[in-house]
Amino acid sequence: MASRGWWRRRWVALSTLWVVWVAVVLPQSAKAQTLPAAGDEQDLWLVRNRPDGQHFDLYYRHVLDRVDSLVSVVPLNGQIMAGCLACSQGRLWLVYPPGGVDEPGTMVQSIQRVSEGSTNLRIEQPLPAGSSLVSLAAGVHGPWA
Questions:
Q1: Using one digit for the tens of pLDDT, what is the confidence trace for 20-73?
Q2: For residue 93, how many C-alpha atoms fall within 13 Å in the half-sphere facing its CB?
Q3: According to the 3-state scheme, what is the secondary structure of the chain?
Q4: Whether the predicted model's global pTM rises above the 0.90 cut
């Protein structure tokens, strides 16, 4: 009888060690990714940076679209400045850092999804030389920083 209790305690101890080892040693740490996004009461825009660091994909969802619907709008070059993505009235504004997209200064681009498969891309007035942009917001009359 005493021998049975000893084996049982040993089995429980080894099982516990196995569970602790699996929980601590095996899992790989996952790196969190940022997902730049902008939205208002009608539209949601998401940016997925590509691994090469030089391109990104733009996705769109309208409030009336299916919940699981996300449309790929357009692939773009460059990287957006952190915190410099805003939308309003069906238009998205993106701000690129100086020299980010074959431009010597800070470039502002606007994108409007006209209909499915049709998008208007437009280069807006650049920011003044030497300006420092911390964040971007947009309203009915366009973006403001």
A1: 666 666 666 666 677 888 998 889 999 998 888 888 999 888 888 888 888 888
A2: 26
A3: CHHHHHHHHHHHHHHHHHHHHHHHCCCCCCCCCCCCEEECCCEEEEEEECCCCCEEEEEEEECCCCCCCCEEEEEEECCCCCCCEEEECCEEEEEECCCCCCCCCCEEEEEEEEECCEEEEEECCCCCCCCCCCCCEEECCEEEC
A4: no
